[in-house]
């Protein structure tokens, strides 16, 4: 079992896509183990995107992600990291295939509505950053209908 960090970015919140996005993860069969909303501080945004610090789009990305509320989520399941990335789709919404979140709702590379951890190490780092209080442990009784 893996846990991944997923976040609806400010454009997704502004456009009223929170419910649609959460619904896709829920219906897929992932288990919600963390959920909250906040306006990110510059400090947390810079830490989250530290790997992109030298990229030309970094200042704009920090301004964008701190511009309003984001919805922070932790989703658990078998191969949750790659399952979530596949639901999300490629970075550029214009190239993302239909059926993915970015493919269905996005037209941009920067404003792409949603973040998902890309590897076990980044998931661990991002979960610790956004959920320092930890995530929930609970028994999803229906999970026996998602895994053979
Ligand atoms: P990912 O979110 O698909 O993992 P990354 O390459 O890790 O994509 O980039 C992180 C975020 O930075 C993207 O989701 C997007 O919001 C933003 N970003 C990436 N490349 C560009 C760019 O070329 N212009 C503007 N924003 C970008
Ligand atoms: Mg990334």
Regions with little confidence, pLDDT below 50 for 5+ residues: none
Q: Tell me the radius of gyration.
A: 15 Å
Bound molecules: inosine-5'-diphosphate, magnesium ion
The biggest sheet amounts to: 4 strands, antiparallel
Mean pLDDT: 98
What fraction of the residues are assigned to beta strands by DSSP?
15-25%
The CATH architecture designation is 2-Layer Sandwich
CA-based shape:
globular
Structural class: alpha+beta
Following the backbone from N to C, one meets helices and strands in this order, namely: EHHEHHEHHEH
Number of helices: 7
CATH superfamily name? Nucleoside diphosphate kinase-like domain
- Strand line-up across the major sheet: 2-3-1-4
In total, the number of domains comes to 1
- State the CATH class: Alpha Beta
Strand elements, count: 4
Question: What would you say this structure looks like, in words?
Answer:
- The protein has one domain (2-145): Alpha-Beta Plaits (2-Layer Sandwich), CATH 3.30.70.
- The chain has seven helices and four strands.
- It is α+β, with helices and mostly antiparallel strands.
- It has helices at residues 10-14, 18-28, 42-48, 58-65, 80-88, 101-105, 120-130, and strands spanning 2-8, 31-38, 70-77, 114-116.
- Strands 2-3-1-4 form a four-stranded antiparallel β-sheet.
- Inosine-5'-diphosphate (IDP) is lined by residues 52, 57, 61, 91, 109-110, 112, 115, 118.
- The site of inosine-5'-diphosphate (IDP) has 9 residues, from loops.
């Amino acid at each position: 079992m893996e846990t991944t960090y997923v976040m609806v970015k400010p454009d997704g919140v502004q456009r009223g896509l929170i419910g649609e996005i959460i619904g896709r993860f829920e219906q897929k069969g992932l288990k919600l183990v963390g959920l909250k909303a906040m306006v990110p501080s510059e400090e947390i945004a810079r830490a989250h995107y530290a790997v992109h610090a030298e990229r030309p789009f970094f200042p704009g990305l920090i301004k964008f992600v701190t511009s309003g509320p984001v919805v922070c989520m932790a989703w658990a399941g078998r191969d949750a990291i790659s399952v979530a990335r596949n639901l999300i789709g490629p970075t550029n919404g214009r190239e993302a295939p239909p059926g993915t979140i970015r493919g269905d709702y996005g037209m941009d590379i920067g404003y792409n509505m949603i973040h998902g951890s890309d590897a076990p190490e980044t998931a661990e780092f991002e979960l610790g950053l956004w959920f320092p209080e930890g995530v929930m442990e609970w028994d999803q009784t229906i999970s026996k209908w998602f895994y053979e």
